[in-house]
Amino acid sequence: MTYSIWRKDRKIAYFSMEIGFDARIPNYAGGLGILAGDTLKSCADLRVPIVAVTLLSEQGFFRQELDENGNQTEHPEVWPKEELLEPLDEKVVVSISGRDVVVRGWVHRLEGCTGFEVPIIYLDTDLPTNSEEDRKITNQLYGGDKAHRIAQEVILGVAGYEMLEVLGYTGIEKYHLNEGHGSFMILEMLSDTKIHSHKDVPIEQRYDFASVRKKVVFTTHTPVEAGHDHFDPQLVKSIISHSVEQELIDYLLYDGQVNMTHIALNTCDYVNGVAKKHAEISRKMFPRHAISAITNGVHSKTWVSPHLAKVYDKHISDWVKDPSSFRFAEIIPDGELWEGHMEAKRTLVDFVNRTCNADFSPDVFTLGFARRVTPYKRITLMFSDLDRLRSISKDIGKFQIVLAGKAHPNDDAGKDLIRQVFQIKKELAGVVDVVFIPNYNIDIAKMLVSGVDLWVNTPQPPMEASGTSGMKAAHNGVPQFSTLDGWWIEGCLEGMTGWSITSEDATDFYAKLEENIIPTFYNDRPAWIKIMKNSIAFNASQFNTHRMIKDYVIHAYFI
Prior knowledge:
The protein is α/β, with parallel strands linked by helices. The chain has two domains: 11-296 and 548-557, Glycogen Phosphorylase B (Rossmann fold, 3-Layer(aba) Sandwich), CATH 3.40.50; 301-543, 3-Layer(aba) Sandwich (Rossmann fold), CATH 3.40.50.2000. It contains 22 helices and 19 strands. The strands form four sheets. The chain has a nine-stranded mixed β-sheet with strand order 5-6-7-2-1-8-9-12-13. Strands 16-15-14-17-18-19 form a six-stranded parallel β-sheet, with helices on both faces. Helix 4 (146-167) packs across helix 5, helix 13 runs antiparallel to helix 14 and helix 14 (334-356) packs across helix 17 (442-451). The protein is globular, with a radius of gyration of 24 Å. It starts with 11 loop residues before the first strand and ends with a helix. The mean pLDDT is 96.
């Protein structure tokens, strides 16, 4: 099937600033992009007629370098687009700050388990006909100042919308915005529907808002007001006014700002949060809007380690096509599940020792934590009392900790947290081994979520919209130990699928680690394996993107 054939059958267009599905294409910064990649993989598996639009980000997010004190240095992560993407002949032109900017497209065909392909269109401004400044718009994910971010979002929303038209995607019925970065698309769509020019006619009657609302689906991921992109309206007008009607910008202001989330909220019929609790928080943040909940998932085939996949293939033969079959995990023999886990653990330990010059042992209880490093994720919560950690390791059972994560280049507080972890690592040396793996990416994440014994997550409630790393761990029989926020409120069956941290400080963390978790791991292996099976049966069977996509199809796409 040639690329030109499957353009007209697409019904859904999915816009995301980042899409992470392959470590070789590093145009993702974290959870938002990985979710987008997992979403599209399940669409490919389930033959959902979707096309995706994103930015090329030829220098990636950044490659992280850490010195012996944990000081982070960022480097471009240039990747070979010519080897991994197909160039498209079609181009579009958008106006940015009064300049014509030419945008070309590249495509990657994401193939599902039945051979169905989902095209991902990458937008690129690095063309000789553009100015030096404009050539850099799409070169780095989330790079530059406010003006640069606005230009990136113009490319995603406006150029992305126009690119689909030029490419011949004539059957699109729904435009799905994964976060508000693509909301300028809505202004472009509205500009195309102008009915009247007379100023005496109310603006809601000058444009066909009703038809646009029916076409737009919006997923919000941020339960904190400050996390939603907002810009000075004069700056926005100076950059985008030649591409869309200025009066639409004024009409959709929120608190005097161009707020990308509020543009979407006010111009679409379906909005969802990414967990039940997140939807509840979002309804309080935006009380005039109906916000549903579709809890996130992860792509099962991607995140199950090859060692566990062999076990699942033997005992749950249809888990790839139907992850709900994980509910039968109880039939897996204990010994086979444990050996599959230990093979994954040995793979991780070998990587850690080789990469971090460490001396980890596969026989030692291993905790894992990997997130974007920023204050609300609270990476240092578990290290609040180092003496307590030392006594638990000496008196209850030895344990080791592996961490990873990047701090945004502009997040000084996040960078300082990494330095703190490196200092803590030195203070615990000889009693509790701690490593911090540099340059966290998809490939490292796969080893971590399958190779540790316990997945730790300590966000400050209610700031975790969903969180998906614990879902990936559950797919590998690794229980989670987390604060009750995001998806974990739905997935935590205390002592069965993992454990909750209910105290504001680390008190609960230390008590359960000391009294329950470590003793069970070392002294009651059958009970521990039962918890592993529960994690698979209860959580992997539910928190997967196959189930999630079916929810979108039923509630958001084809209604």
